[in-house]
Amino acid sequence: MFKRLGHNPFRLLLLLALLVLGGCGDPPWNDPWPSEDVSGSVFFSSFAERPKYLDPARSYSSNEWAFISQVYEPPLQYHYLKRSYELVPLTADGMPEVRRYDAAGRLLPADAPADQVATTEYLIHIRPGIRYQPHPAFAHTADGRYRYWPLREEGLAERYTLADFSETGTRELVAADYAYQIKRLAFPPNHSPLAGLLAEHIEDFAAFAKVAAEQALRDRAAGRLWTDLRPLQMEGVRVIDRYTCSIRLKDSYPQFIYWLATNFFAPMPWEAERFHAQPGMIERNITLNWYPVGTGPFMLTENNPNLRMVLERNPNFHGERYPAEGSEADRARGLLDDAGRPMPFIDKAVYTLEKEAIPRWNKFLQGYYDSSGIASDSFDQAVQLAADGDARLTPEMREKGIALDTAVETSIYYMSFNMRDPMVGGDPDDPADQQRARKLRQAIAIAVDWEEFIAIFNNGRGLPAHGPLPPGIFGYREGREGINPVVYRWQDGKPVRRSIEEAKRLLAEAGYPDGIDPVTGNALVLYYDTALSGPGSKSILQWYVNQFRKLGISLVVRATDYNRFQEKMLKGAAQIFSWGWNADYPDPENFLFLLYGPNGKVEHHGENAANFTNAGFDALFERMKNLPNGAERQQVIDRMVAILQTESPWLFGYYPKAFSLHHAWYHNALPHLMANNTLKYKRIDGALRARRQKEWNQPVTWPLWTLLGLLVLSAVPAIRDYRARERRRAR
Amino acid sequence: MMAYIVRRVLYVIPILVGVNLLTFLLFFVVNSPDDMARMHLGVKRVSDQAIAEWKAERGYDKPLVWNAGAEGLDKLTDTIFFDKSVRLFAFDFGQSDSGRNIGHDIAQRMWPSLAIAIPIMLVGLAVNISFSLLLAFFRGTYLDFWGVVLCVAMMSVSGLFYIIGGQVLLGKLLNLFPISGYAPGPDAWRFLVLPVIIGVISGIGSGTRWYRTLFLEEVGKDFVRTARAKGLSERAVLFGHVLRNALIPILTGVVVVIPTLFMGSLLLESFFGIPGLGSYTIDAISRQDFAIVRAMVFLGAVLYVLGLLLTDISYTLVDPRVRLQ
Amino acid sequence: MGFQPVVLATDALIYLLLALAVGFALYARRHEHLRAPWRQVAASRTAMGALVVLVVYVFIGLLDTVHFRPLQGQDAQGRPRYATEVLSLLDLITTPLREHREKTYSAPFATHLYMRETIELPDGRKVRDYPRLKWGGAHLADPADRAADIARRVAAGLVLGLAIWGGALLLAARGRPARFRCLLRAPELAALRSAAWTGLVVALLLGLVLTLAGVWHLLGTDKVGEDVFYQSLKSVRTGLVIGTLTTLVMLPAAVLLGIMAGYFRGWVDDVIQYLYTTLSSVPGVLLIAAAVLMMQIYMNNHQAEFNSLAERADLRLLFLCLILGVTSWTSLCRLLRGETLKLRQLEYVQAAQAFGVRHFTILARHVLPNVMHIVLIVVVLDFSGLVLAEAVLSYINIGVDPNTNSWGNMINSARLELAREPVVWWSLVAAFVFIFMLVLAANLFADVVRDAFDPRLRERT
Fold this sequence. Notes:
Radius of gyration of chain A: 30 Å
Largest sheet of chain B: none
Number of strands of chain B: 0
Number of strands of chain A: 27
Largest interface: A-B, 72 and 74 residues
Helix content of chain B: over 70%
Distance between the termini of chain B: 8 Å
Strand content of chain B: under 5%
Number of helices of chain A: 24
Number of helices of chain B: 14
Shape of chain A: globular
Distance between the termini of chain A: 57 Å
Low-confidence stretches of chain A: 1-15, 18-25
Shape of chain B: globular
Oligomer: heterotrimer
Helix content of chain A: 25-40%
Radius of gyration of chain B: 25 Å
Low-confidence stretches of chain B: none
């Protein structure tokens, strides 16, 4: 490729010159995807970082799920249009049947109290007739043997991607594939991030892991690269018939159903795993981590994470229709225009690696990306905030036909104290010292002005948090009863942050008048630990320092790399730090467990990085997690939040708001904070896009000609000079 | 000559061992294998057991350079250092810590790197030599003076400004080129023009000034004066004598950088999203993928030493007076 | 006002460098072979013009090097209590700039913020508009008077600048008009004249700054409302430190190893050559990245020792100099080795050897003084490259501490600002102008120094 053109600069220049002379060509000169048909039903997007794991047992970050959620299909999914989020069947033909038993194995009624429940069983029945995408692992020869298994190493010569295996086949999805995947979650070499959690809940999960690991050792000793998990039994997972399987939990864990909508519970055909476990495959990167195999609307046909990833329509897709239920608002926005039509609408989705925000944004403006988030720095260009705080697009954007979607994310950014630190956490055995530390934390909670933070660093894209639960999660309270009384007071119908004087008073009560530490006689020194680096971090850190300075406290920033930061968190060596949490599923348990004592980071390696322990809170948590959503649960949550507000282990920070933009040719865009498999709902009007791209990208060449002219002109006196010199010499 | 080359090649081996040891120490003073495991396994819900297994799978569970627990020679060989280094010398880079085949990655990413580095070098050479010939031709006039001032001014501008300015001006405002990106195959040239232009422009200042001094030095020599005294025109003197004699230092200067072209340009590649070896290295550093870092350092060192060797040889070829001993 | 002096690690090295420079100057005065090239430098118009610019930068950098903690009151026992914050003389002088913090971006000479905000009007209505700045142009009752006020202050500033210049010239001429006339006319004083004209520009700028900077944000404010002009001034020290200390810290190793390799030859030469070939084979960026990470670990393990932000940032800066030194000493070492190889063939060295003079004495007496000019040239030539390198390293996040003011950090954050609409251009332009002036002056000066000391060296550097 490059041999033909790249290395000959003169030909390059010639080509350039021809283009310049030829005027406006087709497609636009700055078209970053010259080989793609922009007038077709192709979706263009980008990814900032190479997805590491595409194996559904392993993958646990949103940039990976953006791809595999279009390929893999777990039994359940979220309804695309309904808010609050609701689970609906995907490959299952109905919601799972939940049966609860007591210790004696008797079936309990649905409303039995949680402490009687000894076993919970989920019965999942999937639809027949669903088939996998074409994949070489399913390919058969005429005589019924597998085409690509067993392969000898020579069979891999010149094969570097999955596309180099020309023959493919398919197979029907069966319940055993789901069971197989759950076993894969338990299989230690797969390093599934969910293994720890599931071991606590699924029957026999931990014991199975041990047995499977031993089997893997035996296999390895015998030279087998693949450990077949099918013959190994896990009590908690049973295949009842071809289309039904059951999962048994050893407790009542109502949140389990949400996990059934994640990729961890997507089906895995054993043939694919066996195919990828053949010798030589790993060396060529032909692994499940690179090539997902699923039943979903799309399949990954090109995986070159240095450059681009391409999803294409799965020809074997079982078919799904665009949802018809939606609100009037949805109808008004045109979100129901496609109701009942078969999905997916897009033939191909091209994701290009784009590490820098600026080129990405500019390409969006040029029409080369169909949708885009808004970086803080391009915000003013795109969005004007009206006086009432409502966001509207700037005239420039509206003229281009760009539309804006906003949604408060189900996540929280918070600043946390490490409660094990004697300075900010207090001596657990000394109530007086605890009182001191609590007042110190409360004073800081008032001083750090998150409203200002949101205004400066997020362009107002965020909601100051009064508690750990973001809106959209059950238990969140709006208005007067939702405010954090320690930090705010209710005034004129809105929360008003308490004054810095009140904070200073609290600080003085804590024993630090004007922020002076009585021990040293100097300003109190607190430490802020961060892994923040890169452009923009300086101003954020400076802002934190300024906030503490308001109290006379001197905040020392200890910036490190991410590894070191993690290590500090694990050892509990940090003092104050910031962190965020993104909901795994829309249940308050998923947020409140971040402060549950037995989840402490240092002692239990859990997610409670604040290492906060409070007996009252822990007891309430135990109750809350098994309650169904309702008045009783709300009451318990209110009490838990009140404890957190008083104790202030976190400065609650803010709930970010997601703003996304899309062009006029991009339809059915609706932010969904839980579902990742949303590509199938999207529709593209390629003809309009092609027209607009051409319109917006007329090359401007006159400055080049002017520059050239100037250069020639500047040479004139020099040439005259030379002539004169030559003449002189000739004389 | 042959013996000399063989000796030089042998001399390369201890250098590569040294380089290897140095990278190894630097890397592991900074990162413990535990860090690497945590980095690769992700953030949420990682158990200690998973870390231990990750290390065992990749052979990071051994001691770093000295295995006190082993017997005899194994003390030295049953270590991470020995395991990971020996194969490098056969140019078998093995797999990256994230499971990719490094040799294959390098072979793929080399082409985009070369596709910008070679045009930049060739076009840059042509542009710089023509500009400096112009300056040498008009030496002592206002053109020469302001030309040199311009060169110094261009040298004083940080490379970042050239890139940012070029992207904004040519890509965004004038719509002439894609702002960033890359496509393999015949479309690649679209994406290469802008980085090449920027690469050439940012090199004009120092390049032109350097070649100008070379030319002026030749101009001052006796044989040039003789030629001029014979009545040759200024143009003939410049092209016939000065340029030809200055070619020796120019050529040797070029030869020494040829091998390093493979390594790609860190800044250009990461700004323009070109999947070359430069951005590969930067990514590996930030992802702490030790296997890639080590492979790239090794490759870099090999190419560097190769460049030195090539220079020596090219000296003898262009200038028979130089003898290698 | 009481204070407690603070000497940061880089401060100490800067003082050392200053002492060395003074020592060298005194030494050079007494030795003709050193004086002659300097005289040549002093006779060059470009060099003297550039020198004035450099002196201004160095002056700012030195002001920013004298650190102290101001007195903050007394504790219960009556002992003085000092602020935790470390300030420098420059901070003291520019106190208004430092403390005139706005909320966020504002353009140069702006009276209003660059971003709209919800403002509550006296009658309770709310509008979204650009609020007035807290400091910039706050002395004006009506922002419409801006142009007039600026014009007035510019005029005053120019007059003040002229006065300063005139005063300085008079001082230089010691009040004697004859000297003054001589300076204006004499052809042999052309270099001095160019210095004087550059001085005029500097003086005018100084006048403008004095009259304007107190009430306006000359170069606007950044994202958190810090004055960009202040940041640019603070960055001067960082740039200078990287440009000079890097060479200073690598100097002992490079000089010692270089002349040892050239003088002793044999196995010493082999070992040293091996050392620098190996080091220079490792791609520099990688070495720097690894070392910077390493230092962070060190800092985390010794947290108690760095109580103030300034100390941490300073150590990181010093470390960056060190590691840049490690990657750049090899070229100097190679040059010195080559030069020493030639020197040891000279008669007087051979003679000394024949007389049985100790090696060390020969090295110190005969070799070292004769290679010093190479050292000098390399120091001067490397300077501008290092200043530019700082910016690039900050871009890949292995540069100075993100809390340190530096041009690299300014460019790095400005990169994102460039995509804003309306564009925030002033940080980038400020960094560009400040780097450009310094590097241009340094390049011009270095050229002249090189030509004066060793025109042949052109081939090799």
